[in-house]
Amino acid sequence: MAPTLLSSPLQGFTDFRFRNAFQHYFGGIDTFYAPYIRLNGQLKIKQSYQNDLQLENNSTLNVIPQVMTNDPDEFLFVVKYVQSLGYKELNWNLGCPYPMVTKSGMGSGLICNPTRINEVLHKAHNESDIVVSMKMRMGYENATEILDAFPILDKYPLKNIAIHARIGKQLYNGPVDLDAFEKCISGTKHKLYYNGDITSLESFKKIQNRFPTIDHFMIGRGLIADPFLPNMIKNDTKAYPKNRWEIFSEFHDRIYQQYDEYLSGPTPIKMKMLGFWEFFSQSFPNPQKIVKAIKKASSPKKYQETVASILKNV
Length: 314
Ligand SMILES: Cc1cc2nc3c(=O)[nH]c(=O)nc-3n(C[C@H](O)[C@H](O)[C@H](O)COP(=O)(O)O)c2cc1C
Known about the structure:
Helices cover about 45% and strands about 15% of the residues. The protein has helices spanning about 15-25, 45-55, 70-85, 100, 115-125, 145-155, 180-185, 200-210, 220-225, 230-235, 245-260, 265-280, 285-295, 300-310; strands spanning about 5, 30-35, 65, 90-95, 130-135, 160-165, 190-195, 215-220. It is built from 14 helices and eight strands. It is an alpha/beta fold. The structure holds flavin mononucleotide (FMN). The site of flavin mononucleotide has 20 residues, from β2 and α9.
């Protein structure tokens, strides 16, 4: 059976504009997780999160909203908000590694606090009928933290736990820890999804062969770096479509146009696209040269010329 592939959220990248264009040009993703909603001490949903989750902006996609908080009231507030839009599931982020987040006991900084995890899940399950799923790292300081959280997590009817097989302290550095991920499989009754460093058909197969009981895989950065990857995994092929760069070019133009309409001025759109090119460039023979060329483009016209020349010479 073909594996189930999920788009792992990337704040600043995988918003509804990206998701719709991705789905239109590449496909291969069963469900998209939206980047996290975070409240700033107020029970108020920022307009950009609202736009991202509006059903009319996601009408052809399966989307699961995500929240990052350590506060039971905030969690419930976001539950009510996403339910008011029609969503049935809320994903909870216990993975974010950034010190500003973890020092305040959120993201991967919350994994070592099963008591607080319990308070949030208790309120969510007692005061709503939302389906809760988790996205976690294996800990912040070390990969055994999650094992101590499992007995609490096992008390609740979570849909699944997606695990990015790193610890928070690593940020995005160093390898994924597959031995520690293996311990998670026997450490919980919940269904686990695998996440981390799936960047090619080979790396996917390595994970699939090592963990035959896992059939859900989340792909984050690899999907932006090579948007054809999910479909290639689904079809078990390393072959790109003949018109690979034509499709990529149309996709690029679609997101460029949409971000250009949304962002005001040449600098924000340039920075937005530069962020994407830091990933896209990994599909080209000399990534650094590509990023350098994009950085150098000093006007929208020069940017378009640079992109045209990159795609002509590939
Ligand atoms: C720029 C950036 C933004 C991210 N934003 C989120 C987010 O909003 N929610 C989340 O659960 N994970 C977020 N992540 C983590 C990814 O979803 C993913 O778990 C991680 O990159 C590992 O998977 P990958 O190797 O397939 O990218 C982010 C990662 C990056 C690099």
